[in-house]
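Let us practice reading a record.
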Amino acid sequence: MENKKKELTKLIGDLRRKFDSFILDSIPIIKDENFSINDYLIFEFVGNSKRTMMEISKEVNLTPGAVSQIVDNLVKRNYLKRERDEDIDRRKVFVSLASKGKRLYELAYKERLCFSKKILDNLTEIEQKYLFIIFKKINEVSFK
């Protein structure tokens, strides 16, 4: 069991590095815009929805202060925007994609689809089925 834990830890690390490298090097638009991995993680999580700073902080596992700095930077660069909840609670601030961010998000999404296709094309139908089952189980695990 100990060897399996070590091997899994190594495989997870390898996968994370490959995924980070893919994001930073293989999505040309992200590379051209000098996004850090944390810039991208926040940008991708916000996606086509409105998120609070606490939601972002919990999702990307960064402190609220770190998230605030990154969001500030992405707002200055016109990828994200902040909006107050004018209807219910003006103290609540939402982060969403600005128009420049929406264009970038769509381009990056298309690149991620190509990445997924590349993975799936190298797996049999049965391997694909098990990959989805395993990924769903991993996503159900709480890492907090």
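A brief commentary: The first strand starts at residue 51 and ends at 52.
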